[in-house]
Amino acid sequence: MSKFKSQTTTLFIVVVLVCAFVPAFSVEEAEANLLWNTCLVKITLKCALDIIAAVFKNGTMPDPCYNDLVKERKVCHNTLIKYIADKPMLIAHETEYLKKSDDLWKHCVSISKSA
């Protein structure tokens, strides 16, 4: 029960943070909410943080996250990475981050197909 409560609390925190970012997107609010609600249920917080670290900090991802990323769908992955890369302190390297994001996506798809 405590694990469920912890996961629910974590999900709530992620939802609040994501909702704070939604107005920055050039998508209709209803569409953005649908996209985020769809994306958040397909990936664990740990994998989301591992993916962000892999793209922005040269981190590594554990194997279970490859399938989570593919289940998340490319549109979700791209939206999150693009949003983060557009931040003023990261925008100078946005092209590099987007390339790393695409490379990570391709690698995860190839790993998940072979599994």
List the helices and strands and how they pair.
Blueprint lengths: L1 H20 L7 H12 L4 H12 L6 H10 L1 H12 L8 H21 L1
Helix pairs in contact: 1-2, 3-4, 3-6, 4-6, 5-6
Describe this protein's structure:
Pfam families: Prolamin_like (PF05617). Residues 38-109 form the Prolamin-like domain. Keywords: Signal. It comes from Arabidopsis thaliana (Mouse-ear cress). The protein has 115 residues and is mainly α. It has a domain at 42-114. It is built from 6 helices and no strands. Helix 1 (2-21) runs antiparallel to helix 2, helix 3 crosses helix 4 and helix 5 (74-85) runs antiparallel to helix 6 (94-114). The longest helix has 21 residues, at 94-114. The radius of gyration is 14 Å and the shape is globular.
Keywords:
single chain; 115 residues; mainly alpha; 6 helices
What is the C-alpha radius of gyration, as a whole number of Å? 14 Å
Structural class: mainly alpha
Q: What would you call the shape?
A: globular
Provide the β-strand percentage band: under 5%
Number of helical stretches of at least 4 residues: 6
By DSSP, the count of extended strands is 0
Give the distance, in angstroms, between the N- and C-terminal Cα atoms. Answer: 32 Å
**Major sheet attributes:** none
Overall pLDDT confidence: 75
Helix content: over 70%
Low-confidence regions = 15-27
User: What is the succession of H and E elements?
Assistant: HHHHHH
Signal peptide: 1-26
Organism: Arabidopsis thaliana (Mouse-ear cress)
Protein name: Prolamin-like domain-containing protein
Domain Prolamin-like: 38-109
